[in-house]
């Protein structure tokens, strides 16, 4: 009798431990800490540094939108695709992005990009570089974004 109670107790403990471990795996922690101490980084929606520890690094290839759309439409399509890609590889979406390089065809589009980024990322912005280029691989493209995300970790 005592042996069967001990066996049931051990199974219960093992079940609870397994469930706790499974829940840890299915709910990845935010793997980044953003450092944006000054007004400029807040105004322009970027972090001076993003600190990560552990986790899985995901390098995101350059994304473009539809050349038939305007700048805002292209930018929003790109962020939606990046979000989908990060989720497809096990992440939480754009909140896992730690850095991005943004290429635009017209320097005057930078302010609109900043507004869109503020809306999408809210406060913990990825590190970012904004580069103006003279052209893209396809006519009609106005913006391209590549980046890096960190999934899980501390």
Task: Tell me what you see in this structure.
With 154 residues, the chain is α+β, with helices and mostly antiparallel strands. It has one domain: 60s Ribosomal Protein L30, Chain: A (2-Layer Sandwich), CATH 3.30.1330. Helices cover 39% and strands 25% of the residues. A four-stranded mixed β-sheet has the order 3-6-4-5, with helices on one face. The chain has a two-stranded antiparallel sheet with strand order 1-2.
Keywords:
single chain, 154 residues, alpha+beta, 60s Ribosomal Protein L30, Chain: A, two-stranded antiparallel ribbon, 4 helices, 39% helix, 25% strand
Low-confidence segments, given as residue ranges, are 12-29
Radius of gyration: 21 Å
- What's the mean pLDDT score? 84
CATH class: Alpha Beta
CATH architecture: 2-Layer Sandwich
In one word, what is the shape? globular
Q: Name the beta content range.
A: 15-25%
Which structural class should the secondary elements be placed in? alpha+beta
CATH fold category name? 60s Ribosomal Protein L30, Chain: A
The CATH H-level superfamily is: RutC-like
| Helical content band | 25-40%
Span between N and C termini?
44 Å
Task: Give a brief outline of the structure.
Helix content is 39%, strand content 25%. It is α+β, with helices and mostly antiparallel strands and 154 residues long. It has a single domain (28-151), classed as RutC-like (60s Ribosomal Protein L30, Chain: A), CATH 3.30.1330.40.
